[in-house]
UniProtKB/TrEMBL annotation:
Protein name, per record: 31791_t:CDS:1
Length: 204
């Protein structure tokens, strides 16, 4: 695992900080286009972060976690971001939810499988048989983005699993105090790197 140009773990930067900034910059347009949706793709592995959930004091250290540990932490950040953002949009006609899409047969693990020995590679092919197809892997995202039930049932800050079913997060994934701490960290990080006014109009 490395660092981004801004000095934060690349896994965390790609999976959380970039999404955080991109979403907030789009918020004025999203709210102007209401009723609208924000869908964050997390993962079931959000259940397995480091102790404490988010290791804020170690996010500028590329060697303190493996890439897998960093990924688990970042997927928890997706859930926590959804919780806090949804709270801040309660008075807007914007429905913010997150999801675990399932374990899908994509090329995401190709680098990992490439390191397996010749005798282990058949196991990878067997595992792939039990993974979701690309089409099935998109169903929960589509549900959150398009289903009338999201508005009809006022689903906000929820976590869904395949296929469009309400799921349960980990205890860390329910921690509103941790969600607020992550928000403050992310906001301060963005302002430090890009200036105090970068997010000034997001919630106008």
């Amino acid at each position: 695992m490395g660092l981004t140009q801004d000095g934060i773990q690349d896994v965390f930067g790609v999976n959380h900080v970039g999404h955080f900034l991109f979403t907030l910059l789009l918020l004025p347009t999203i709210k102007a286009s209401s009723p609208s949706r924000i869908v964050n793709v997390s993962s079931i592995v959000h259940r397995y972060p480091p102790s404490g959930g988010i290791e804020f004091d170690k996010l500028n250290d590329p060697n303190v976690q493996t890439a897998i540990q960093g990924y688990f932490q970042a997927k928890l950040a997706n859930v926590l971001f959804t919780i806090e953002l949804s709270k801040r949009l309660l008075d807007a006609n914007v429905y913010c939810n997150c999801l675990h899409p399932g374990v899908i047969n994509t090329e995401l693990s190709r680098g990992h499988f490439a390191t397996w020995s010749f005798w282990m590679k058949p196991l990878a092919r067997i595992i792939s048989i039990f993974l979701l197809t690309l089409d099935d892997g998109a169903l929960t995202q589509l549900y959150c983005a398009t289903s009338p039930e999201i508005e009809e049932k006022n689903y906000r800050g929820k976590y869904f699993v395949p296929f469009g079913v309400l799921g349960k997060t980990s205890n860390y994934g329910k921690d509103e105090e941790l969600a607020k701490k992550l928000w403050d960290f992310s906001e301060n990080f963005v302002k430090e790197k890009l200036g105090d006014d970068i997010l000034s109009k997001c919630f106008d």
